[in-house]
Design brief:
The structure holds two protein chains of two kinds. Chain A is an alpha+beta fold. In chain A, about 30% of the residues lie in helices and about 25% in strands. Chain A has helices at about 1-20, 50-55, 105-120, 150-155, 175, 225-235, 250-255, 285-290, 295-305, 330-340, 360-375, 385-395, 415-425, 440-455, 460-475; strands at about 25-30, 60, 70-75, 75-80, 85-90, 130-135, 140-145, 185-195, 195-200, 215-220, 240, 260-275, 305-310, 350-355, 380-385, 405-410, 480-490, 495, 515. A six-stranded mixed beta sheet of chain A has the order 13-17-12-16-14-15, sandwiched between helices. In chain A, strands 8-9-10-1-11 form a five-stranded mixed beta sheet, sandwiched between helices. A four-stranded antiparallel beta sheet of chain A has the order 4-5-7-6, covered by helices on one side. By secondary structure, chain B is mainly alpha-helical. Chain B has helices spanning about 1-30, 35-40, 45-55, 65-75, 90-125, 130-145, 145-160, 170-175, 185-195, 195-235, 235-245, 250-285, 290-300, 305-335. Chain B is globular, with a radius of gyration of 24 Å. Classes of the chains: A alpha+beta, B mainly alpha. At the A-B interface, strand 10, helix 6 and helix 12 of A face helix 2, helix 3, helix 5, helix 8 and helix 13 of B.
């Protein structure tokens, strides 16, 4: 009898000890201001990237800067390139299942890339140089290009490169937008309520497995207001928040139950100068203005000190960035000299500057630029307009558009060509993103050459990119302001978030766990 | 018979009004500079994609052609695709409207019941301290701006006292264990129909603050109107006669007086529907309530033009329908209106 009692006590004790272990927190709430604009992996090219990257996977992924290897392998286990840079062969991972049970094979790769290019929306342009996808066998696939391109970067793109189950067939965007998905990632989509909340739920058969520490279910609570996100975080309702009011980051950092994790990002801010009309059509005047921008103050006031001055168009850490690129420093004396050389010793002209009214940081830095320019005798009229209107006006007739245009920008994939091409190539009479209306055929040729060489001769490509950037830096059609730092306010207990600038604003939940 | 004719007439008026509204909203929103095709594409849209979207959405056609096309589709129940969610606007609205109506209806019911009661008491106790207190309370309720009131309630009852939840319509943890199935969109109905009582009571708990914020303004207004209307009625000859016949004051006020004082109050209720619908824009934003106000506010800031048209039509229709309904009720209460 006594023995039995002992046994019972022992069993009870073991059972009690087991309870906390099995009751470990695996569920979390993420208070997010980022809405889903579409769930179609071929079309998606907006804020929903955060969730897509947790449900879908790409062949390979770009590692954060400073990693030993450039890529990590996800659905592919390796790749080789032909000498002419026109053929890439990927070997694929075995034993991977899509959420609908379909096995992952070469067919899925062909299907996904072809579906994305055929629809031609979102980030489909990244496949612009692709000629065809050939299935070699179930676990080998060959991508053939029309002209050389940095294909590994493209295959690892944050948008437009997701692999989906071939069982999607000819289902369209409407099917996805009802709350369906067809990925192979660690999480599936559940309880999708558009504009309210949705759950990223553990996919039991995930190839990576669930041993080790992982968050298993994430309730995404769509919360537009920064103040509400802050309160959800402070009251421990949310483990993670997206964008709290700028002034509250230091408070969250200091509080006992919350913290802020920060890391590099490829998001940068810039000021376009309208090069089509006097006086900004003069190179010297633009150089003067680039010297008159108080970069340190912008960082202090606009981003609470957590950003760095941009060197050039390519953010630090990304391929194409180099210390050899000319950087403009704040120097009013130099600015005055340059202005005098251009024939404006006392300034004496007026400029208009537009910024996106909904961007808090831009609203804070615009008056700083205005104040410094005033010291040169230049009046700046600052106009905060809703982004869509600001942009629409800039796309009209350049002769009637603004003089200075503030823009926030981020690259779609980890290669400088998109940024350098989109923001500065000659758009002729139809401006879209080149809001300096800058024309330089030598530059256009040089970046194209660099792009085609990236795969086969990266050193030479980098040289060309540096030359091209310096060409631009002498002309100063754009003043590059700051590279920003990604910041995630979260609960003290949440661990494991890896900030990877190649995937802007994307929390990979599989890396995360709750202590 | 008369009543049916009256209703039909009003409904014809509704159609004309919505037509005018559609012209105004369509052409006004289009006057705002903004590239709809680029918005539709989103992200770092490329020039070719923008051009393609322009053709796809028919934005290359003259404005009046676009208007006619829009109205043609609207008659078939198609409000187009939202530029932001890329879902049919009608589907978005059909999910959002019930969530707002739930707040609005509840707030109005409370406002009417409490407002008439308070107004009645104030009139009955005219000149006393009770009357004075009610006067102060209703004055505050009417004059506090809604966003301030909502924030104040949140500050006191969530931040300080912690009695009520901060935001949303369901506890986050219940979204894992007791999610509400979407059937009608009315959280109360959906949770009851599926036997999800945990969610039902949780929703009710979440509703307290937003409904309180919405209800106070109309409540104050109705109370003040009831008081003055009732006091006016009480000076009439028939009340005097009734009083002379020895009826008690309570019966006089609340049975004979109130019924006759009700007519102007009913008119006001129609207006209150409109006011409360508008107030939900702020309340839903502050309490993160996923209704039509929240939806509209985001549509406005992102210039989601089809969604804006949809919201305007819907809110406009609700407003006119509410006014028609109160007019009909007035005729039922007061047979003198012909």
């Amino acid at each position: 009898m006594k023995q039995m009692m002992k046994c019972l006590v022992l069993i009870l004790a073991v059972a009690l000890m087991a309870v906390p272990a099995s009751g470990m927190e695996k569920n979390m709430v993420y208070s997010s201001p980022y809405n889903i604009t579409t769930l179609d992996p071929s079309v998606s090219y907006s804020t929903e990237v955060q969730y897509m990257a947790n449900m879908y996977e790409t062949l390979i992924k770009v590692n954060p800067p400073g990693s030993k290897e450039m890529f990590s392998y996800v659905l592919a286990t390796g790749f080789t390139a032909s000498d002419d840079g026109l053929e890439y062969t990927f070997t694929l991972r075995k034993g991977v299942k899509f959420h609908d049970g379909t096995a992952f094979t070469a067919e899925a790769v062909k299907f996904s890339i072809e579906r994305t290019t055929k629809i031609g929306k979102g980030a489909a342009f990244i496949w612009g140089d692709l000629k065809e996808v050939n299935i070699v066998d179930d676990y080998t696939v060959k991508l053939i290009l029309k002209s050389p391109a940095p294909l590994p970067m493209i295959a690892a793109s944050a948008n437009g490169s997701y692999i989906m189950s071939p069982s999607v067939g000819d289902k369209g965007q409407e099917w996805f937008d009802q709350g369906n998905e067809a990925g192979s990632g660690p999480y599936t989509l559940k309880n999708y309520k558009s504009g309210e909340s949705w759950i990223l739920a553990k996919f039991d058969d995930y190839w990576g497995g669930w041993s080790g520490k992982h968050v298993e279910n994430i309730l995404v609570k769509y919360t537009k207001e920064g103040l509400v996100q802050l309160k959800m975080l402070q009251s421990n309702e949310a483990m993670l928040a997206g964008r709290i009011p700028i002034d509250s980051y230091s408070k969250v950092q200091k509080a006992a139950n919350t913290k802020v994790i920060s890391g590099p990002s490829y998001v940068n801010y810039m000021a376009f100068f309208n090069t089509t009309r006097p006086p900004l059509d003069q190179q010297k005047v633009r150089q003067a203005l680039a010297h008159a921008i108080p970069y340190d103050d912008l960082i202090k006031i606009g981003w609470n000190g957590s950003a760095t001055q941009a060197r050039g168009p390519v953010p630090k850490g990304q391929f194409g960035y180099s210390e050899k690129v000319i950087q403009y420093e704040y120097n009013l004396e130099k600015a005055k000299k340059l202005l005098a050389q251009a024939g404006f010793p006392d300034g004496g002209f007026k400029l208009t500057l537009t910024y996106a009214a909904e961007n808090v940081s831009e609203g804070r830095i615009a008056p700083l630029i205005q104040g410094e320019f005033k010291k040169l005798g230049i009046e700046v009229e600052v106009k905060g307009i809703v982004w869509t209107s600001q942009w629409a006006k800039a796309k009209g007739n350049p002769k009637e558009a603004q003089d200075i245009f503030l823009l926030m920008w981020w690259p779609t994939y980890s290669d400088p060509y998109e940024t350098l091409y989109t923001l500065l190539h000659n758009e002729k009479d139809k401006p879209v993103w080149n809001l300096a209306y800058y024309v330089n055929p030598a530059y256009d040729n040089m970046i194209r050459k660099a792009y085609e060489m990236t795969g086969s001769n990266p050193d030479k490509a980098l040289d060309l990119y540096i030359q091209a950037q310096n060409m631009v830096q002498k002309d100063v059609p754009v003043a590059w302001l700051v590279d920003i730092v990604a910041e995630w306010p979260m609960n003290e207990k949440l661990q494991g978030l890896v900030i990877n600038p190649a995937y802007p604003n994307t929390p990979f939940f599989y890396d995360m766990y709750i202590e | 018979m008369n009543l049916i004719l009256f209703t039909l007439k009003r409904l014809a008026g509704l159609a004309a009004l919505l037509l005018v509204l559609s012209v105004l909203v369509f052409f006004f929103t289009r006057a705002i500079p903004g590239d709809i095709a680029a918005l539709y594409v989103g992200g770092n849209a490329k020039p070719e994609q923008i051009e393609q979207a322009r053709l796809e959405l028919g934005l290359d056609k003259p404005l009046y052609t676009q208007y006619l096309r829009y109205m043609g589709k609207l008659l078939q129940g198609d409000m187009g695709l939202s530029l932001r969610t890329h879902r049919p606007v009608l589907k978005d609205l059909s999910e959002k409207i019930p969530m707002s109506l739930e707040l609005v209806l509840l707030a109005l019911i409370v406002a009417v019941l409490l407002g008439i009661t308070l107004g009645g008491i104030a009139a009955r106790k005219q000149g006393t301290l009770v009357d004075e207190w009610i006067k102060w309370f209703t004055a505050a309720a009417v004059s506090l701006p809604i966003f301030f009131l909502a924030l104040l309630l949140q500050l006191v009852f969530f931040d300080q006292l912690g009695w009520f939840p901060l935001q949303g319509r369901l506890d986050s943890m219940l979204e894992f264990t007791h999610p509400i199935e979407l059937i009608t969109g009315f959280s109360f109905v959906d949770s009851l129909v599926t036997g999800n009582f945990t969610a039902f009571f949780n929703v009710a708990w979440h509703m307290v603050l937003p409904v309180a914020a919405l209800t106070l303004g109309p409540l104050g207004f109705i109370a003040r109107l009831t008081r003055s209307s009732l006091l006016e009625v009480m000076t009439q000859d028939y009340i005097l006669a009734a009083r002379a016949s020895g009826l008690s004051e309570g019966v006089l006020y609340f049975r004979y007086g109130l019924r006759n004082a009700l007519s102007p109050i009913l008119t006001v209720i129609g207006l209150m529907v409109a006011l409360t619908m508008l107030n939900t824009f702020f309340v839903e934003m502050i309490f993160n309530w996923p209704g039509i106000g929240y939806y509209a506010l985001i549509a406005i800031t992102s210039l989601d033009f089809p969604a804006l048209m949809g919201v305007t039509f819907t809110v406009g229709s609700i407003y006119v329908l509410a006014n028609t309904a109160t007019d009909i009720m007035r005729r039922l209460v007061d047979p003198r209106i012909k």
